[in-house]
Design goal:
Layout lengths: L1 E2 L4 E2 L5 E6 L5 E6 L9
Antiparallel strand pairs: 1-3, 2-3, 3-4
Organism: marine sediment metagenome
Protein name: VOC domain-containing protein
Length: about 40
């Protein structure tokens, strides 16, 4: 995969990275500052 840009940080503290696979399909990775779901 090829990075589309730099890792960006949202105002809420989430980190977002966007990549493109060899066919041009976008893949978005998000590291949440706070989990969306509670751990069990």
């Amino acid at each position: 995969a090829t990075p589309v840009g730099d890792i960006s940080v949202t105002p809420g503290g989430d980190e977002i990275a966007i990549l493109r696979d060899p066919w041009g399909v976008a893949i978005q990775f998000v590291k949440r500052a706070e989990p969306m779901l509670p751990h069990k």
